[in-house]
Predict the structure.
Amino acid sequence: ARLSAAGLSVPTGTPLPDYASISTALTDEAGLVPAPGEELRVTPLVSVDDIVSQGQPLLALRAAPEIRLVAPMAGRVAAIELKPGRSLTQLVLFREETGERHVFSGPAGNADGVRALLQAAGLWHRLRSRPFGHMPRPAEKPSAIVVMAADSRPGAPAPAEALKGRAAVLARGLEALSLLTEGRVFFCEPHKARIAADLPAEITRIPVGRLHPLGLAGLQVHRLCPASIENRIWDLHAEDVADLGELIETGMLPETRLVTVTGPALNSQRVVRTQPGADMRGLCFGHVRPGPHQVIAGSHIDGHAGHWLG
């Protein structure tokens, strides 16, 4: 890596993907799994062989039943694997072309309504609470919220590309998110490629450099609003905030998110829209050179081997 006064330029050994040709690639299988190092004790809300709609709640946390994990796609429940203590190993879905999407209802015009919607629709699990980086407690109130519209990890998809055409729902999501804190909401974006959106006046826009690790949430939290036991700080990806805005407007979760499929084993670097929890082997199938390879979720400096997209 090359070191400058502002950070690191991390070589990847592969060319950057071409954002001019973004395709949709839905895999035939998808899975719900805990994040690395996370333990989720759950109560299943469905059974094996049930047909479920996209966005339908599938699992509830035992300690906080109002927090749900939802179906990333319409499909058939193929397996529910739990360890002792009902700790989740994985829930696997096979895709079924039903076209059904779960509709959430309920007011989101105040803090309690936004909190309930986040928890019911599976978006609460995408929040990270600092200083420990875990999912927030059900009633936790942050001192500030950091929204990341920048990502300096090598090979990571550009958040600006994920937000194209979504300015209205991004602003709606930020407005709703600001109801959950009495502190500030920081919107971190590339300093030379500002996000083309009219954000609510109470949102503080923060320019971020392109070098690593300037595009990491932890560094920006430490820079803008250091976390402590008494002052919990939340962070969230800007695409998740746009998903919240779309959920409030339509009652439905978006079906896909933007990911890059990169690495030296590929015939070509790809940018695709796929469902959360997608089968990473399915995303690579037909695009990988012959030979033994390892598929990881995340960049090559922080990724982990796995089967399902994180």
User: Anything to note?
Assistant: The CA atoms of residues 164 and 196 lie 8 Å apart. The two ends are 26 Å apart (CA to CA). The chain has a mean pLDDT of 93.
